[in-house]
TrEMBL record:
Binds 1 [4Fe-4S] cluster per subunit. Following nitrosylation of the [4Fe-4S] cluster binds 1 [4Fe-8(NO)] cluster per subunit. It comes from Streptomyces doudnae. It is found in: Cytoplasm. One of its GO terms (molecular function) is DNA binding. This is Transcriptional regulator WhiB. HAMAP family: WhiB. The gene is whiB. GO terms for cellular component: cytoplasm. The lineage of its organism: Bacteria, Bacillati, Actinomycetota, Actinomycetes, Kitasatosporales. Pfam families: Whib. Residues 1-29 are annotated as: Disordered. Acts as a transcriptional regulator. Probably redox-responsive. The apo- but not holo-form probably binds DNA. Residues 9-19 have a biased composition (Low complexity).
Length: 125
């Protein structure tokens, strides 16, 4: 059975609510290529009460792992679409994913407004 990304004995220490979504789709093809399946699980999820400097350092290390992962794009899209609320996925922290999602929502709204405006112009013309 393929192991999900971030899988190792260390994942067992991650609070249960942070793991299941990744486990649910563990048969997705991109998981089999995930670099983090091996042994870096503790890099990707914050332990409780992690000091800021330690968090930043850990997240940078996790991003370096993601940077050499062949399925980074797939992983990132997965984390954005779920959405995954915790951890580093696809080279993005949870906060960075929230920014990406907010940008996407704004772009979608702008496109809808432009489409409505175009429709009104076509009807008037
Ligand atoms: S991009 Fe990062 S989090 Fe995603 S599978 Fe690869 S190493 Fe894991």
């Amino acid at each position: 059975m393929p192991q999900p990304p971030h899988s190792s004995a260390q994942v067992a220490a991650v609070p249960a609510q942070r793991v299941p979504v990744r486990d649910r789709d563990q048969d997705a093809p991109w998981h089999t290529e995930a670099v983090c399946r091996r042994d870096e699980a503790s890099l990707f999820f914050a332990p409780s009460k992690e000091p800021t400097a330690a968090r930043l350092s850990r997240e940078e290390a996790a991003k370096r792992v993601c940077g050499r992962c062949p399925v980074m794009v797939e992983c990132r899209e997965h984390a954005l679409l779920q959405p995954e609320p915790y951890g580093v996925w696809g080279g993005l922290t949870a906060a960075e994913r929230r920014v990406v999602l907010a940008r996407r929502r704004r772009r979608e709204v702008e496109l809808q407004k432009a489409a409505r405006a175009g429709s009104r112009i076509a009807q008037a013309g």
